[in-house]
Design brief:
Helix content is about 50%, strand content about 10%. It has 24 helices and 12 strands. It has helices at about 15-30, 105-120, 120-130, 145-160, 185-190, 220-230, 245-270, 275-280, 310-320, 330-335, 345-350, 360-365, 385-410, 410-430, 435-440, 445-470, 480-505, 505-510, 515, 520-530, 545-555, 560-580, 595-600, 605-610, and strands at about 45-50, 55-60, 85, 105, 135-140, 170-175, 200, 295, 300-305, 355, 375, 380. An 8-stranded mixed sheet has the order 1-2-5-6-7-8-9-10, with helices on both faces. It has a two-stranded antiparallel sheet with strand order 3-4. Strand 8 (about 295) and strand 9 form a beta hairpin. Helix 6 (about 220-230) packs across helix 7 (about 245-270), helix 14 packs antiparallel against helix 16 (about 445-470) and helix 15 packs across helix 16. The protein is elongated and about 85 Å long.
Length: about 625
């Protein structure tokens, strides 16, 4: 790209957004006339009326290494990077929906945030702001920004789950904040559509955001030295510093960041070499990954914006690449001083800031480029860096292409479901449930429906496998049209899979359908609905009614008495009544010829007469 050609612009910050960012910068970096947030203060809240009524919650950084890592952390521990599974009670959405794998996050930062919830008036103040219809803003510098990120996600969890549709989404603005969570953490935030609410302002050379990429357990003393040099409350405070400990840590951090960036680049470039698996077996890589929207401050006129987590990770490494003529001590000093250069944001946001669509700029600059270094948006990077960033952009584009292909199959799925609905109605006209008809396989339409079932299984299995391989956009599982389509598919077709399972007596060799035979395509689509509707996990088992019935029947045939199974029978009856009342369980279940009704009538008369479904069963 010619140097005089302006880079493609990204989505510019609105005037209101720029004013709010400047306001957050003013609170996080107060002027000399106003005292900075105390290192021991849990948070401060400031109310403003411009650009709109808002309540800004400011979280101060911690300058002690103890605040960055849990007390139990040690070099030989199982989590040398200080990460731990997030508490689902605190952050229920921070997990992979389909697989159920929970996100991992900094145990120290999560503990600090939980301490605020339990031991400070944070919740009360947030509730007060919501009641006053103010927009809630979370902000902080350094590790305070990491706490602000967790606070914003906590607010989004609670706001969404309580159905506060009129409450504006929070605005989270951080300055030089360390990474907080892993890939699952980032995936969940993107899936829920929260990334645009969380803005991370980063100086390209700032060391602090990258610290979690190094093994914390073996670097405790070095990290404390870094924090001592940076802390305005420490007698050793200096914007530069010349301790040899810090360059040593800087070198360690460079190596760790290189390993992670290289590993991830190989992954999204499609490398299938077994060396990748071998690498992670003897080199433990940091689990932390960027999450949210990143804004790299390259100059007073240009702001590089990235929402692609893979690209942000590459940039975090390549921005630190040493110039052949640069000394390690000088590089470390520049990286330290960069952490206190965010104060200029307050003035910069008052001007017209150019927002650069960085990945598009790179893609357009690569063809025919012969330069060793290219400057785009104020960042000069090597050709290798540009290629890695372009690959990250291409991987994101490929995932969108994959999604478009899946969307194209939507009509095929709907057509097959329409055919199976017709099959179900035809069976009901003949006074038989479609489950029983399919299980017997006596008619031509039973055979045709099995063909439809297998066609749909192939389409849905492809979707699930693409999700497992991260080949679809993170937001796919949260798309309402696919959640609804998956629910319709599961409720209509899973009974046919259950019928096929018990028709071939697979339960005798493999085990029960629910514990051993249920395909992932039904587990995933069930969890999509539960996440989308914010209902408890495992509460949407209406499509498995027939499996529960079959198991009870099999256990009674194998010698178990009704008294042994009485509680489970009662639970199934109660669930069936609820599902039938809500319209998620078909009326064909209660036809006089239904295998369920025939079995139910063999239960003791005393139980049947008092059953909650007695009125639904024909006499």
């Amino acid at each position: 790209m010619p140097m005089d050609t302006p880079p493609p612009r990204g989505a510019a910050l609105s005037d209101d957004d720029r004013l709010l960012v400047a306001h957050c910068a003013g609170l996080s970096f107060p002027s000399a006339s106003r005292s900075p947030p105390s290192a021991t203060a849990s948070f401060q809240v400031h109310h403003a009326s411009h650009p709109y009524p808002c309540a800004a919650f400011v979280f101060p950084p911690t300058w002690s290494a103890a605040g960055w890592m849990p007390p139990s952390l040690d070099a030989g521990g199982r989590a040398p990077f200080g990460d731990a599974e997030v508490d689902p009670a605190l952050f229920p959405s921070l997990r992979s929906v389909g697989s159920g794998v929970p996100a991992r996050a900094s145990a120290a930062f999560v503990a600090a945030f939980r301490g605020l919830l339990d031991g400070s008036p944070l919740q009360t103040e947030v509730s007060k702001a919501v009641a006053e219809e103010k927009r809630v803003v979370f902000t902080g510098h350094s590790s305070g920004g990491s706490i602000a990120t967790l606070a914003a996600i906590w607010f989004l969890e609670n706001c969404t789950r309580r159905g506060s549709v009129n409450q504006a989404q929070p605005f989270c603005v951080t300055f030089g904040a360390p990474l907080v969570g892993d890939n699952v953490f980032n995936h969940a935030v993107r899936r829920e559509g929260w990334s645009q609410c969380i803005l991370h302002f980063i100086m390209p050379l700032d060391i602090i955001p990258r610290i979690p990429l190094a093994p914390l357990a073996s670097s405790r003393e070095q990290i404390q030295s870094v924090l001592d040099w940076l802390s305005p409350h420490s007698p050793n405070f200096s914007p530069v510093g010349n301790s040899l400990v810090i360059p040593e840590f800087y070198e360690t951090l460079l190596r760790s960041t290189l390993s992670i960036a290289s590993y991830e680049a190989c992954s999204f470039m499609g490398c299938t070499s077994s060396i990748l698996g071998t690498l992670t077996s003897f080199i433990e890589l940091s689990p932390y990954r960027p999450c949210g929207t990143y804004l790299f401050l390259t100059s007073t006129e240009q702001l590089v914006i990235l929402t692609n987590s893979d690209a942000v990770l590459q940039l975090l490494f390549y921005c630190l690449q040493l110039d052949p003529q640069q000394q390690l001590l000088d590089a470390a000093a520049r990286s330290l001083s960069a952490h206190w250069q965010y104060e200029s944001i307050k003035q910069n946001m008052m001007q017209e800031v150019v927002c650069v669509d960085y990945l598009r700029a790179i893609s357009s600059s690569l063809p025919g480029t012969q330069m060793n270094g290219i400057a785009i948006g104020g960042l000069e990077l090597s050709k290798e860096a540009m290629l890695s960033l372009a690959a990250a952009a291409q991987w994101e584009k490929q995932r969108e292409i994959n999604q478009a292909k899946i969307d194209a199959n939507c009509s095929k799925i709907q057509e097959a479901l329409k055919s199976l609905n017709e099959y179900k109605r035809t069976c009901e006209l003949h006074e038989v449930s479609y489950y029983d008809s399919f299980k017997l396989q006596r008619e031509v339409h039973d055979f045709n429906s099995n063909v439809r079932r297998l066609e749909l299984a192939g389409l849905w299995d492809e979707i699930i496998e693409m999700l497992r391989r991260r080949e679809l956009p993170d937001a796919f599982e949260g798309r309402e049209e696919w959640v609804n389509l998956g629910t319709s598919y599961r409720r209509l077709v899973e009974p046919l899979d259950i019928a096929n399972y018990y028709r071939h007596s697979k339960n005798e060799d493999t085990g029960s359908y629910l514990s051993k035979g249920r395909p992932r395509r039904y587990k995933y689509t069930q969890k999509w609905r539960e996440q989308s509707h914010r209902i408890p996990l495992g509460s949407s088992l209406e499509s498995c009614f027939w499996a529960m019935s079959e198991e009870l029947q099999a256990e009674m045939i194998n010698g178990k008495s009704f008294e042994d199974l009485k509680d489970r029978v009662g639970k199934l009856e109660s669930d069936a009544l609820g599902w039938f009342t809500s319209g998620t369980l078909g009326k064909d279940v209660f036809l006089s010829s239904s295998s369920f009704v025939i079995w139910w009538k063999t239960l003791p008369e005393q139980h049947r007469s008092a059953s909650c479904i007695a009125r639904l069963v024909p006499s």
